[in-house]
Amino acid sequence: MKITLVFAALFLTVFSFVLKAQHTDAAANKKTEWLMTSFLQHKTEQTTILGNPTIVLSPYGNAVAFDGIDDALFLKEMPLKGLKSFTVEMIFKPESNGVFEQRILHIGGVTTDRMLLEIRAVNNHWYFDGFVASKGVKLALATEELMHPLEKWYHVVFVVTANSLTTYVNGKEELHQDYTFNPIEEGQTSIGVRMNKVSWFKGAIYKIQISPGALKPNEFLRL
């Protein structure tokens, strides 16, 4: 009888471990897709809206416009948790008369481990900045030599792997650099501003998508 109980307890322990591992694997393989309008049309307790982001038309469907002053979305979500590599994509339109430094997407902690999609606006143009902080090591992938006109729609991609960072604009690789990345385990998400409410974004966003793993250009979203 005692042997039977021991085997039963052992079975339950192993079964529980397997279920937990399967749940972890499923979560790690889950793609996150955010249509910006859904946050305004179907607001939940997970979303805080700052200012007055508005729905506007885009070539792809309705998008959300941010005024560059006090419009933003804060989400009680952490889609990068535990990911050893990932691909972040965004379809957006940066507009004129915004500040120089604009933080568009911030995931993770305020000053601890985090990932950001940013732009720098200069003389009616902008350049892309993919930023990561991991275990105290920070790296911004950006150069003003790769400028793009404002007031147009773009698809930007930031690919983060265990040993490198790569940025793309409209399917074309811009920058690549070696980097040792450790998974981001804690934090939340802000859209339209850095999490401490500085560096507001002026423009519109149609969609943000986060995929586990490093996608190839032929797997990216299409404009």
TrEMBL record:
Keywords: Signal
Gene3D superfamilies according to UniProt: 2.60.120.200
Region forming the signal peptide: 1-21
SUPFAM superfamilies reported in the protein's UniProt record: Concanavalin A-like lectins/glucanases
Domain of life: Bacteria
Protein name listed in UniProt: LamG domain-containing protein
Gene source species: Flavobacterium plantiphilum
